Amino acid sequence: MLAKLPKDLDLSGIMQATSELDKLFLPTRYPDAWVGGVPSNYYTRQNARAAISYALMIIKRVEDSWSSLRGREQRIARV
Known about the structure:
- This protein is mainly alpha-helical and 79 residues long.
- It has one domain.
- The protein has helices at 15-29, 45-78.
- Helix 1 crosses helix 2 (45-78).
- It is elongated, with a radius of gyration of 17 Å.
- The two termini are 33 Å apart.
């Protein structure tokens, strides 16, 4: 999805977060992704907290960008 965003959007602050969450997508979604055991054997509470932190960081960045675009749209409409 990041590749489809406008090139002028600054993503530097969230690239690490998106990379970390990307690694978690398949193995945590599908319990049979691991040869032996289940995801709870491989991930800790600390891993979960970090993932939540990354997700919240991304959500905040999206909300901030959305607000910025909305503000720009309102300024254009007034002209």
